[in-house]
Each structure stands twice: as structure tokens, then as C-alpha cells.
Design a protein that fits this description.
The chain has a single domain, classed as Beta Barrel (Lipocalin). It has three helices and eight strands; from the N terminus they run αααββββββββ. The radius of gyration is 14 Å and the shape is globular.
Amino acid sequence: MRCSPARRFFAWSIPALALAGCAEGALIEHPACAWEAQRMPPPGQSVVDVASFSGDYDSNWGGCTFSQDGVRVFATCERGYKVMCRASGHSLDCGWISPNYGTHGKTRLTLERDGAHLNGPWGKDESVDDGGMWLFTRR
């Protein structure tokens, strides 16, 4: 199935809603288009240019396990948080949801050069930075 640019944009324009309606691998609205859009690298970048984020991490909000398929990165965390990201180089642009607390927001994470630390600001609702820093250390 070929997906229109508008449908591809939709898949990333509201990550918190996509998270709320997904179980690993299945998204709301146009599942085939959303899955395709998440696997595609940003224009001008190949999947080879994307860092590996997969693995188990400790963080200041509990442990998380990250899995990756191309530029699509998904994390589940001990406190019930779910994080869905799009990778670009050594960075992740993410939406997160906490079903246990009924909150959601965004985060922008960067993998440090050592490959062991993934850090960045997080925010609630549409903000990416009004909540503080999210600090991850690979186990």
C-alpha cells in the first residue's frame, strides 16, 4: 500500500494519540501507512546513519527497555510509561504516554558519544521541555 504524504505526516503529527491507540506495532487511523512512515528515515538520511538505541536502560524515572526497527524506536518503562520515537542520527524525537497517571507529552533525547547515556528534556502535553531532564544509562 502506498501512503500519501498527508497520511505520513499524520503518523508523526500527534504521537501521543498514536501511542494511546497502539500496541507495539499497531497504530490508530491508517496502520499500514503509519507503520511505513515510522520505518522511513528522514529525507536525505539512510537507516545506516541512525544509531542503535535498543537495549535496557536505567533512568531517573525507572528502568526502560528500548527496541528499534529502522528509525522507529519504542520503549516500555517500569512505571508504565510507553515511549514511541523517530530516530535521526543520534537523536530521538518522541511522544510518551503514562496510562497509570493519565498524562502524555514529548521528549527529545540524544545518545551521547559514549553510547551509554541517552539524555534530554521532557515535557507534558505539547511541550518538549517543561518537565525537566530524562536521564538514561545503558545497563
